[in-house]
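Let us work through a complete example step by step.
Step 1: write down the sequence.
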Amino acid sequence: MYTLNKCLVHSCKNLALSTFDEDGNITDKQNYCLDHIPDPGKVKEQIYNYIKTHDVIVGLNTAGITFADIDLTDKRFYGCNFQHCTFTNLHSNGLRSRMSMFDFAVFSDCTLLNCNMQFTSFGGCTFSHTLFTGSDMVQNNFNGMQSFQSSFDDSDLYNSRFIRARLVNTSFRNCNIKKTMFLDCRQENVSFKMSNTREAVFDRGGSALFQGVDQTGGAVF
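Step 2: predict the structure and record it as tokens.
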């Protein structure tokens, strides 16, 4: 996992960004957060270069960084922190993540096909025009997320959580949603066609038929 070093500014509660040694390897040295670091341009370049030159990335802390027009195809992230990051025009295939944090990140116009992301948190994220088609996203946290014109089609979402999510023009077609929880969700034009809705949890009583989900797995609005 990423180090839990706090920002060197005493009154700041944010986690510090990763530091790198002369060979470009991640260290556990104390540092500042993005808001207080003296040279944000330099640390951003170090982080971009580290991701570009490594296929397996462990314990990287990039909280608050913006990533635009980069390719994360076949990258492997383990125990990394991407909280409050912004991802724009990300086009990737086969990205893998384990026990990483994307809480409160923003994904805009991203295509993340055939991902394998497990035990990963997207709490409070915003997805806009983002595709996770054909992905394995097992036991992930999507609580409080907002999704607009996005798709999880043909994905395995087993035992994931979408509690209090806002779903607008979002598709979950042909998905495995066994034990997936959609409690207290706000839904507008959401499709679960061909998904196993009877295995999911849509209300606190455990019923699969909730908020317009019909017996065939489609949404009726």
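Step 3: interpret the result. Residues 209-221 have pLDDT under 50 and may be disordered.
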